[in-house]
Amino acid sequence: HYLRNLLTKVPRSAQPWVATLVRTIFDQPAAEEVHAQHARVVDSLAAKHPDAAEHLDQARPDLLAFTGFPRQIWRQIWSNNPQERLNKEIRRRTDVVGIFPDRAAIVRLVGAVLMEQTDEWAEARRYMGLEFLAKARLRVIEDTPDPKIDQRELTA
Fold first, then answer.
1. What pLDDT sits at residue 155?
2. How many CA atoms lie within 13 A of 98 on its CB side?
3. For residue 102, what pLDDT is reported?
4. Which of 39, 31, 65 shows the shortest CA–CA distance to 141?
């Protein structure tokens, strides 16, 4: 959604160039290079499209948050395609029914779709490998209390 919002800041004729330029940010092999490429893209945009450059610069923390995780799961983090597919399937199934008798009927149908998706990800094809998720959980997040330390002892 950042890319769509960014493209509204430039003329239609420049949108393909800007989109290609922004995609180069995600093609970098390491976190440091991703951040450096983001800065280069912002600089490139600043000359011709200062509004777009400002928008991209302000979006930096959210846009580059994926670099705090292991490289192997970057694609899953920055993409929302699975969520889009799931929403499309829910829409398709609810359109077939048309009118629901009550709220509980909607919850049952959507719950069934979500349970199917969970089973598929857990058994058939895993969206993110457990070993990579375990690595992601091992990273220390600054300013986050350690759950092993009783916080009441620190304030006493």
1. 42
2. 0
3. 92
4. 65
Sequence-separated (6 or more) residues with CB below 8 Å from residue 59? 2, 6
Evaluate the CA torsion angle 127, 68, 20, 9 in order and state its sign: positive
Pick from 80, 118, 111: which is nearest to 93 by CA? 111
**Given this model, what pLDDT does residue 152 score?**
46
From residue 132, how far is each of 35, 63, 64, 76 by CA, in Å? Answer: 22, 21, 19, 11
Q: What would the pLDDT profile of 44-87 be if each residue is shown by its tens digit? A: 999 999 999 999 999 999 888 888 888 877 877 777 777 888 89
- Type of residue numbered 38: H
State which residues of the chain have pLDDT below 50.
149-156
What is the three-class DSSP state of 145? coil
Cβ-count burial of 41 within 10 angstroms (0-12 exposed, 13-18 middle, 19+ buried)? buried
Specify the amino acid at residue 24: T
Q: With CA atoms as reference, report the closest residue to 56 among 68, 69, 70, 45.
A: 45
